[in-house]
Amino acid sequence: DAKTTQPTSMDCAEGRAANLPCNHSTISGNEYVYWYRQIHSQGPQYIIHGLKNNETNEMASLIITEDRKSSTLILPHATLRDTAVYYCIVRSPTIGTASKLTFGTGTRLQVTL
Amino acid sequence: NAGVTQTPKFRVLKTGQSMTLLCAQDMNHEYMYWYRQDPGMGLRLIHYSVGEGTTAKGEVPDGYNVSRLKKQNFLLGLESAAPSQTSVYFCAGCGRVSGELFFGEGSRLTVL
Fold first, then answer.
1. pLDDT tens, B45-83?
2. What φ, ψ does residue B49 adopt, rounded to 5°?
3. To the nearest whole angstrom, how far is the Cα of B91 from the nearest Cα of chain A?
4. Of A43, A93, A105, the CB nearest to B99
């Protein structure tokens, strides 16, 4: 699985959009981009994933560049409850692949009043 | 539908003691993973399994053993606990197709 690079921390004002970048320049053609978040000491929670098209769900939007070397997770209206560590990982969910998922240190998003 | 359940949630051990963490899932996941998380750090993969009866080493396997005798259960064992194994342990399951990981709530282990 390809490695990812994320900023260590970011701040965002409540009600504003939070844009979290991720660099994955070594991503290969069949690898998806996944985003998770970890609130305080809870287990990480799945947010969204995509291959090459932009994706949106009830939690967030995912924008993947055309060359797929980077992506941005967008929380359109951040709230205090969105304060968490956000992890970007890339992986191939190929059937039968012994896919070792590795998490880096992620981006610590602090949402403030 | 419980999802991914870890037991125990808290445990204190003395150096040299042994224990087993149980991860149980009712989501029919093929893949299961054990991670550890130390303060201020990301998750590090200990061991994983791609199916019943199979296990493999992750990036920090030393001092741990695992077994997956049944598809729904993934056990993490510490044969002789050391203070360096004080950590929060997370189990996760994943389907073959979706690739989406479902995590348990964590097991906080302290080794004195």
1. 999 998 999 999 988 999 999 999 999 999 999 999 999
2. -140, 135
3. 9
4. A93
